[in-house]
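Shift notes (night). Ran ABC transporter ATP-binding protein while the centrifuge was going.
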Amino acid sequence: MRRRSPLRPHEPEWTPPPPDPEHPAQVRRILRLFRPYRGRLVFVGLLVAASSLVTVASPFLLREILDVAIPRGRTGLLTLLALGMIAAAVVTSVFGVLQTLVSTTVGQRVMHDLRTAVYARLQSMPLAFFTRTRTGEVQSRIANDIGGMQATVTSTATSLVSNLTSVVASVAAMLALDWRLTVVSLLLLPVFVWISHRVGRERKRVTSQRQKQMAAMAAMVTESLSVSGILLGRTMGRADSLTAAFSKESERLVDLEVKANMAGRWRMSTIGIVMAAMPALLYWAAGISLETGGPALSIGTLVAFVSLQQGLLRPTVSLLSTGVQVQTSLALFQRIFEYLDLPVEITEPEHPVRLAKIRGEVRFEDVGFSYDGPDAARSTLTGIDLVVPAGGSLAVVGPTGSGKSTLGHLVPRLYDVTGGRVLIDGVDVRDLDFDTLSRAVGIVSQETYLFHASVADNLRFAKPDADDDEIRAAAEAAQIHDHIASLPDGYDTLVGERGHRFSGGEQQRLAIARTILRDPPVLILDEATSALDTRTEQAVQKAIDALSEGRTTITIAHRLSTVRDADQIVVLDGGRIAERGTHRQLLAADGRYAALVRGDARLAVPV
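Came back to this:
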C-alpha cells in the first residue's frame, strides 16, 4: 500500500480569508448579480407600482361609500363603488401572481448563475486546493449556502419594490386625508428602523456561525458515510464513537438554529404589537381632537385612514423584516464570494499554443517545485533535468516523500512548476491550451475513481462519442471485457459508489480501459499496481503493457518489479536526481537503486 498522505505536512489546510466589513461595495456586488435580468425587474417594478396604486385606491372608495353613497341613498353610486373595490382586489391579485412568477424566475436564474460560477471556479482550482479542503466543506458552500439564500434572492427585490411603493403610496394617501393623524402614525418609525438594524446585525453573526457548523456536519457525513468511511468505522469498531461525535455536532447546530430563529424575535414582536395598537391610538386621537374643539373627522375619513394605516403596517413590517433578512444573507453571500474570489493559479495563456499532432516527447529543464511557492525555504523538487523521447519510457523510483508523484503531476499541469520548465514536443506546458494538454497526457493512478454509473458511462467519460465497438475494444485491451461480459447487465452494470462493486484490480483495469479510449500519446502511471496482490498485479500489468505500447510512458513506482524494462530509470532522493541509467547499469553501480532492488524480493533473481 502506498504510504503517502494526501495532505502533505507542508500543505496547510485551506482556510477562508476573514469576512469583509459591511460596506457598499459588497452590496453593489450583490446587485450586479441581477444586472442581466434588469429588463424583467423593471417589468416587475411596474407591476408592483400599479398594484400598490390600485390597493391604495380602495380606502378612498370606502370613504365615498360611507360618507356619500350610503347616507344619501345613492344606490347606483354604491354599486359602482362596490364593483370598483372588487375590481381593485382582482387586479391586485392578478398583478401579484405575475410579479411572483417573474421575480421567482429571476431569483432562480441568479441562484443558477451563482451555483454555476462557484462550480466553474472550483473546476479551475489547482489540485493543492482540494488536498487542503474537506469535500463536505465544498459541498456545503454549493448546497447549503446558496440554498440558504434562496428566499432572499428570489423575493427580496420584489419585496423591496412592492413594500417601498406601498409605503410611499399609503403615506401620501394618509397625508391627503389628514396630516395630523399621519404624524401620529409615523412617530415611532425611526425607532423601529433602528431596532430592525440591530436585529439584522445579530442574525448575520449567528447565521455565519450556523453555516460553518452545517459545513462541518456535511464534511463529517461525507467522510464517515462513504463506502470507505463505513468500512473503516466498522472494521475499527468506531461506529458508536462516530455516532456520538455526529450527535455532538448536531447538538451544536440545534443551539445555533434556535439562536438564529430567536435572535431579535422579542424586539420585532414589540414592533408588531405597537403597530397593531395604532388603530386604537388613532381612534383615541380623533376623539380627543373632537372633545378639545379641534377639527372633526367624518366617519368615512376616519375608517379610510385606519384602513390605510393598517395597509401601511404590513409593508412597513415586511420592509423591516426584509432588511433583517438581507443582513442575514450577507453572511451567506460572503461565504460564496470567498470561493468566487479564490485566485486561479493555473490559467490558460492569453495566446495558447494548440498542437494538431502530438508526438509525445517530454522534457524537464532545471525543474523546481515547492508547494509553498517559489520563495519557500523547502522545495519538493530541485534541479530536475530529464528527456523522455517520443514513444520512450522513463521509470521514477525512490523512497516515500522523494517527489516521485509530484514530478508526474507537473506534466499535465495539476501543479505548475515554481522553477524551470516542463515541455511537450518542445512547447512549455504552460503555453499549451487546456484541450491540447488534456489530449496529450493521460494518468492512471493507484487511487482509481469511478462514478456511480454504468460501466459504459464510466468508460465514455473519456470519450463521450465512443460507440459500443470502441468501448469493447478498450475493455479487451485492458483485460476486463470477459469479466464485464459475465455480469448479468454487462456494460450496463452499475459500478456502485466509487466503484466498490468491483475489486481493486478490476477498478484499475476499468481505469486503464478508460485511458485507452482517451488514447493519449503521453502516459503517466502513478504507482498503478502498488496496492494489488501479485496475481492481480500480473493481470493489470498486461493491461498496462497494452496501454503503454507506442506511447511515451512515465512510470512512478514504489514496487520495482514493473520498471526493470524501462529505457531509463531515475532515482529521486530528497527531490533531486540521485542516480539515472538502465536497470543493469544501476545494479552494476551498486548504489541507491541496487539497495532498493535488494529490498524487493521479486527482483532477487539473476539479471
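The longest strand covers residues 362-369. Residues 179-296 form one domain.
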